[in-house]
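Usage

Read records sequentially. Each one opens with the input sequence:
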Amino acid sequence: MLAGMGLELMKSKVEGAARLSVAPMMDWTDRHCRYLHRLISRNALLYTEMVTAPALVRGGAVHLLEFNPEEHPVALQLGGSDPRELAQAARLGAEAGYDEINLNVGCPSDRVQSGTFGAVLMKDPDLVAECCAAMIAAVEVEVTVKCRIGVDDQEPRKVLPEFLERVSGAGVTRFAVHARKAWLQGLSPKENRDVPPLDYPLVGEMKAAFGHLHLSVNGGIASLAQARGFLDQGLDGVMIGRAAYHAPWDVLGAADRVIFDVDPPAGTPEEIVEAMLPYIEAHLAAGGRLHQVTRHMLGLFAGRPGARHWRRVLSEGATRKGAGPELLARALAEVGDLSGAT
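and closes with the structure output:
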């Protein structure tokens, strides 16, 4: 009974954190990136890069599940299309301590399509429902879905409500909807993030039609003010991707105050740099390289005088053998010293 109450409290906490989340992004939202983001916002929900179920179950790549306890609340995004395999992968994720397991039904890359998962699954909501039902049966943490509004020649106003109805019928109550179609042929993954037009009103219509579901909107959202606007319109959450990565302080620095109505953990990006130093020292002591961490910090001073010099010092120096925390002190000295520099 007590365990069940604890689980419900955790689900409620994660759902609250989903008011603002940082999207899963391949090659970007690794554990070093997520640690940085957690220092900036204590409350936003963080997502891993997509991890494929075959890599975990058949390949035994459980090292991909490593994360720092400071990252909570943190969700694992899985890719796959085999219900049994996804259930096994979800179980591994839950055992590793993730607060949520998310199924990727939105990635349009050729590599993902060849594995019959990602956005191509928008064409088979029955299979998605079967996968989700298997995952829900396997774990106690919440199972969620990130999807598109449709793919190729599908009509989103027909496809998306049918998809939500079918998959929610399997027990999923929280969805993050990228408000663009994905074109599986003819557009690159990068173009699929920019070229298909955004249809935010459709996501709002889905919230009106499925009031019992927790719906987050994703795609092209560039500021906290824009995110706050979506919440004020009645959506349950906002998921921000590239803007949160390229300008983490601008997006996450005031997120705790603006979105969650609590004080943020730091007042300046300089404080974040100082807070990262013990983490960096521990990473180097364990045999890691400086650039593995600092590549995620390049946008920390975006728009500030000296930001270009901050990026240059880190980009040029962090890959050098023996580079250590002193490089950040050098880079930090450039910030604000050159009036008008960007």
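Summary fields computed downstream for this record:
- The first strand starts at residue 20 and ends at 22.
- The two ends are 56 Å apart (CA to CA).
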